């Protein structure tokens, strides 16, 4: 028969084997790369995902091998034309050499701090060689490529590969923007005032021309009217003269009737004339002949 002591020893041995076996295994995820340390000194780098073995007394450090983000706070840079810029940029990087990364920096937090410093320096160097217009419009893509290349060369010593650098925004500082806006506003107001002045001058010229043409047209119309009226009056006088020459008595009668009609229109018309005046000759004699006075006898 086996003694109880033997069973306990066997159980402890099995437990020890399990613990050693557990300490000898480690897992590498697909998004990670692992450094195996022996008493703090790197002895191996594992990049293949899966289950791996190590000495029980060794430790492991997992380092992300995905593309990582570097968000850079807005920085001021001075272009070659001495214009100040507020630049908002970001970068994308990955750890290509885990061992060098661990030995030089050690952590992603420290890497972000170091890359931020390098990125700001690269931004100032590259943007300081070009003008403001090149940054915001003409050569922005080329400038981002140059910044990425410089940052990648400097980050290579840390086992880091810079994948991309992008400039979200490159603009003037707030006070400069306000000054530029005010200058643009003043310029547009000046142009608007100039356009209004030109429009007012053109309107005045058109109005003056229209008034002059209207005056000429009215004068010509009055002249033609006067000529027509004069021709009508002449024709009327000719007809009157012709009618008078044909029947002087009837013409005199017609003129007297017209005078009566014009003079006796009102109900309270009064004439202070002598009854034997020439105006009332048709009242006293239908023929219109005035009575001749009888000469006094001697």
TrEMBL record:
Main location: membrane
SMART domains: PHB
InterPro entries in alphabetical order: Band_7, Band_7/SPFH_dom_sf, HflC
Transmembrane segments: none
Pfam families, alphabetized: Band_7
Xref: SUPFAM superfamilies: Band 7/SPFH domain
Location of the protein in the cell: Membrane
Key words of the record: Hydrolase, Membrane, Protease, Transmembrane, Transmembrane helix
Domain Band, first and last residues per copy: 23-184
Keyword hit for Hydrolase: yes
Name of protein: Protein HflC
Organism: Bradyrhizobium amphicarpaeae
């Amino acid at each position: 028969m086996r003694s109880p002591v033997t069973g306990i020893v066997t159980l402890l041995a099995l437990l020890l084997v399990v613990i050693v076996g557990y300490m000898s295994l480690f897992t590498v995820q697909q998004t990670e790369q692992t450094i195996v340390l022996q008493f703090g000194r790197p002895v191996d780098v594992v990049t293949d995902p899966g289950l791996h073995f190590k000495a029980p007394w060794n430790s492991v450090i997992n380092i992300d091998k995905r593309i990582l983000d570097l968000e850079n706070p807005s920085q001021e840079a001075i272009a070659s034309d001495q214009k100040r810029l507020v630049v908002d940029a970001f970068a994308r990087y990955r750890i290509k050499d885990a061992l060098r990364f661990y030995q030089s920096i050690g952590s992603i937090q420290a890497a972000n701090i170091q890359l931020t410093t390098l990125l700001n320096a690269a931004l100032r160097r590259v943007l300081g060689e070009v003008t403001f217009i090149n940054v915001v419009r003409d050569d922005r893509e080329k400038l981002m490529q140059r910044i990425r290349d410089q940052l990648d060369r400097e980050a290579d010593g840390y086992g880091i590969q810079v994948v991309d650098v992008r400039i979200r925004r490159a603009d003037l500082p707030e006070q400069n923007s306000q000054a530029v806006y005010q200058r643009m506003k003043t310029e547009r107001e000046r142009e608007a005032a100039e356009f209004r002045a030109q429009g007012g001058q053109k309107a005045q010229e058109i109005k003056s021309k229209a008034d002059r043409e209207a005056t000429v047209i009215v004068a010509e119309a009055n002249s033609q009217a006067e000529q027509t009226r004069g021709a009508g009056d002449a024709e009327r006088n000719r007809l009157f003269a012709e009618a008078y020459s044909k029947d002087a008595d009837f013409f005199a009668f017609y003129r007297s009737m017209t005078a009566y009609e014009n003079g006796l229109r009102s109900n309270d018309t009064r004439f202070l004339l002598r009854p034997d005046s020439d105006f009332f000759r048709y009242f006293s004699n239908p023929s219109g002949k005035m009575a001749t006075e009888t000469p006094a006898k001697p």
